[in-house]
Write the structure tokens for this entry.
Amino acid sequence: MKLETLSEQRCFGGLQGIYRHQSDETGTPMQFSVYAPPAAEKGPVPVVWYLSGLTCTEENFTVKAGAQRFAARHDVMLIAPDTSPRGAGIEGEDESYDFGSGAGFYVDATETPWNKNYRMYSYITSELPELIFSEFSADRARQGITGHSMGGHGALTIGLKNPEIYQSISAFSPICAPTECDWGKKAFSGYLGSDTAEWAKHDAVALIASGSRSGEILIDQGEADDFLENQLMPGRFRQVCAEAEQPVNLRMQAGYDHSYYFIASFIEDHISFHAKRLYG
């Protein structure tokens, strides 16, 4: 699995890089971002995965969140993958912002023609980690996961489905109940077909209701977010967690919207949250 370095810059004593490789899962070249803190030069450090939202690439979080300063301070590596395959050659993949390119929803598609390339669940949980742990000074035994919007959905569902891998979970403005909102219904019907039982396997509310558990989950949600009620539904997640006695710290932030200004305002809290749990 050949790794191509696209860029590397010193940043807060560590190294910020953008890389590309040919993915077996997606059948396309895939890019990702890695911030290695100064501590990584001395030995493997914990990893925090960041999954981005609709329309985003690996670049949005890397450039806009201001996370490197805090990752350096807390000795954690940040990894930000892309959100979908690019240039798969599927008819219609670039027609809308909420399906196809930039909108992989972190599932393995089962419906033709998407099932050949749109395998983001396996890419995130299997293929990319193997590359990371072979090429970077990252500790496989200490991993956390976070993300924003569609990526918040990915962080919650992937974390809940794999508690043996991810010791900490957080999210910004996650799509908490994708089986109940327009974004999720469109994506899941296109990628997974009409069987809603398959949809539920990638719905954080449904996973908690069916018995999935984690340590305390941290969620930040802006009260001025235009997508709050119709697409994100954090109240549904809080309710099901209360019923299941699953610890969740849902912080509603007055005046904040869905943008990266919001993420930048609270990213330090999230990195600290993960570091405390990954360093024990």
DSSP finds ten helices and nine strands in the chain.
